[in-house]
Specification:
This protein has five helices and five strands; from the N terminus they run E-H-H-E-E-H-H-H-E-E. With about 140 residues, the chain is an alpha+beta fold.
């Protein structure tokens, strides 16, 4: 099953819509709650980063029999130092984002924590692609 979402940068009101819809589908498929939580948290963090930092982008989620693979591509400024950005608490969020309760610097750290596989490719000035894979039945791996 493939799901596609368009995300607008700076549109905080609709932030989290894509991850909520994927969560709903996974519940309908009777996936274990702890697996749904992993996917939801990792995807939400990536989605909110797209809203905070980018000028929009797309999310494609593929639900396979044994895993979920989510690709988020944005048209933002890119990440200059991915290693530094992965550190918990590091943030480049705007004052506005922080005033709204976002931008605590936990996005990439939480993605890494909850994803079984996390890949990040970024080019300053061109954008970022985040790929998140979560196994639906990790006990079988």
């Amino acid at each position: 099953m493939n799901l596609h979402f368009d995300v607008e940068g700076g549109e905080f009101i609709s932030a989290g819509v894509a991850s909520s819809k994927v969560k709903k589908v996974l519940k309908q498929l009777a996936i274990k709650p702890e697996i749904i939580r992993k996917i939801s948290v990792a995807m939400y963090e990536a989605e909110i980063n797209m809203v905070i930092h980018a000028h929009g982008g797309v999310i494609d989620a593929e639900i396979m029999p044994d895993h979920v693979h989510v690709v988020l591509k944005d048209e933002g400024p890119g990440i200059e130092n991915i290693e530094l950005a992965m550190k918990a608490g590091y943030s480049t969020a705007s004052r506005l984002a922080r005033e709204m309760g976002f931008g605590a610097g936990m996005g990439l750290a939480n993605m890494k924590r909850y994803a079984d596989i996390l890949q990040i490719e970024s080019e300053p000035g061109k954008g970022t692609t985040v790929e998140i894979t979560v196994k639906l039945y990790p006990e079988q791996a």
